[in-house]
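Why run this: before we spend reagent on co-expression, it is cheaper to look at a predicted model of the complex and decide which construct boundaries make sense. The entries below are exactly what would go into the expression plan.
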Amino acid sequence: MNTTDTNNPEYYHKVVDCQYACPAHTPVPEYIRLIAAKRYTEAYMINWESNVFPGVLGRTCDRPCEPACRRGRVEEEPVAICRLKRVAADNKGDVKSQMPQGPFKPNGKKIALIGGGPASLTVARDLAPLGYEIHLFDEQIKGGGMMRTQIPAFRLPETVLNEEVNYILDLGIHTHFKTYVSSLKEVLDKEYDAVFVGTGAPKGRDLSKLPGRKEGDANIHIGIEWLASVAFEHTKSVGKKVIVLGGGNTAMDCCRTSKRLGGEEVKVVVRSPYKDMKASPWEKEDAQHEDIPILDNHTPKSFEVKDGKLIGMTFEKVEAHYDENGKRKLIPTGEPDVFIEADDVLIAIGQLNSFPWIERDLGMEFDEWGMPKVDKVTFQSTISNVFFGGDAAFGPENVITAVAHGHQAAVSIDLFCNNKKLTERPSPFTNLTSQKMGIHEWAYDSEVPTDARYIVPQADKEKTLSNIKQEVELGFDQNTGFAEAQRCLNCDVQTVFTENKCIECDACMDVCPTSCITFTENEEQEDKLREKLLVPALNLQQDLLVSDTLKTGKVMVKDEDVCLHCGLCAERCPTSAWDMQKYLYKVTKAGCGNH
Amino acid sequence: MTYIKPEFRHPNLPVNEVGFTKKEYEGRISTLCAGCGHDSISAAIVQACYEMSIEPHRVAKLSGIGCSSKTPTYFLSNSHGFNSVHGRMPSVATGANLANRDLIYFGVSGDGDTASIGMGQFVHAIRRNLNMVYIVMNNGCYGLTKGQDSATADKGSMSKKGAPNPFAPIDLVSLALELEASFVAQSFSGDKGQLIPLIKAAMHHPGFSFINVMSPCVTFNNNKGSTKSYDFVRDHASSTSVLDFIPKKEEIKVDYEEGIQVKVAMHDGSYLSLHKLARDWNPLDWVSANEALIKARDRGEILTGLLYINPKSNPLHDTLKSSDKPLNTLKEKDLCPGSKKLEEINSSLR
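The model came back. Tokens follow.
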């Protein structure tokens, strides 16, 4: 195998599994260490710079970082990264003084943002300090988009959302709320230098062809519309018996909200088997904790209406079969159909994009599914000054993905407005610093505690079910936050190897607790080399760090997979051929490094 | 300031025949200098015991004083151990072995502990053919007292201080051969491929198994001019053979050319398979082993590998015709013949 090129900024970035998995590439271990040091304000600001909504995401993020966390490969559970973020947000001091302070010197450029959700707000935050005049349009009365309309208050208190939305709006954004943009042409005619579309996936899927749909319409609701109506307090109650259709996170929010609005017998009914449900495991758990049964393998057949009023639904029982490609088919079991009583039905079976307001004769290209053609890197549409991001770009994802899109779209808009090539993206900021402070002393806590993952405390069920605004999760207190933070393996503190210092004494190989290091003859084929390591490197997602040929003709091979970053290799190295060096990787934001 | 070995191990760590991973054979984290050859030898012992599926409670580790003698703390934490007086490990080992012949005895010593203060003990343990593994971690200097030349430092060799050693060395391997130790080997801490099979064979050999391991002292004796440095040993080591220890269940897989392959049957049906690299030497022949050693010395080479083995060795318990049952398990009933027998003996003497 070839010698690993550690000068490629992505090599060490990939070692930091959480950060690499995060769409916005937030430097996770860096802020976790700050939380452990009780430097909450700084921890918050690292998050704010990268993911814009630390308080919101610390409660509601889909947390792609956690399944990626190395700790999950070493023991049972990953670090509770998401809830640690909340610890920073809950305990921070004055952050506003550390944010960009307006008024900013205008640069003469005007930008329109359509939609006031996370993607648009990110674009606003990145561009406003550069002097852009930003106009944000949203049909609702406040900013936040789906974070306000679709995430119930018992998961995300309005105060937290308002605070973080206002940090951005306070940068001098011109807001146009209660303004539904019904024509892109009109917007383009107003001579904005660029337009950003962050309108999300605003249309909930319906079951319009199911018998009884029309007749029962008064008591059949589209999940996301219903949640929005609850959020703005237009809807204040629901029937005693509620069926929620769907297995995603919206379905979980619908059933839990129903339970708080008077629903006594709330059931989630889903077509797929329980394990295939799209909802995050913790959201399923939370619903079940509130005594909401989840009936899987039930396909809706009809809405039952009696005397003009919905009385329930009939379901066909199915069984999942998987072919050799893993493709699923739901096959009826032949058992009798199941009737479930209901006063109200909430349909939460997915969301669609919808662009009725974009005229099709403007020259914007759409694909066969009615989605605009958007460049995956630049987020530019086929109209050069119109950019997309968030769910509007490539279909429904999540908040953190919308934020990541927003950052990149802002970079593109800034390049575009400066007549620069959009494909020449600014490179990431990287920095590698030795952590050695003395004998047995490192600038980070190299010890690896064996603590199991801590559970986030919740408020009493009686309390949470009786008040829709009572937040369920209470968040870690400072001490638990510290203990959980200490579980972090500091994967950003890299094991950096310098060939010409190595005397091949084997000390690192002997001491490594997780047998990551092997000195061996090199192999042409990667799989052969992986096979012959001390413990074969079978996790192909994880790279091998291969050194140049050493004096004896062997090479040093380190399997990054389960390295604990404990520093013992460097500790036991007599010549400092190993060093522990902290790798900081930041995605470059608009206006940094390219003007 | 932390210097603690984490508890986590690789989740795919293999398990041996008695259900243990390598972790169960490890010791505490080493407090020797970083890069010390002794740590590699400790790791080789861990690996050998793991591979042989030895239950750790069936091993006793004995040592004297010195850097080398600290190492039993760094391997086999689940085994028995005794850290004795300087140079007196062989007599403690003898006592322990006589009391309980069922354990595997690991004596760990250094060049000071063996070739100076413990020389008198060392030679008598060989002479008695005590059933034990005797490892000398040989770095040619007194590392624990700031690196003075030891009795095994080669003439002219220079330690970190830079003064050439004016005295001829004691060659422990030649000495062991001279005394007809029944298993004599030499190796290098930086060559685990060779060292691990040697340790396995030594544990299996019924009698005194001596392994002299060149183990560089990174702090005081790993400089230019030293004959015990990593670089010097790598450049001058000359391997006699490639050794494989083959447990009785397994077939010998590799077939070498006639005259190059030597199979040594062990007492329990297992084999040593030696792939000789030198034709004129036979590890079963004491004279040729001596000759090979002298010639190598003349060429300035360090001969490594299994140099001599006497598979028909007669260990101490056989010579003494001692009880098959370990002495420490004998009860009063076994030891005291009773008053009637005493009467008989007394009357026969009247």
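Chain A is about 30% helix and 20% strand. The longest helix of chain A spans residues 399-417. Bring this page to Monday's planning discussion.
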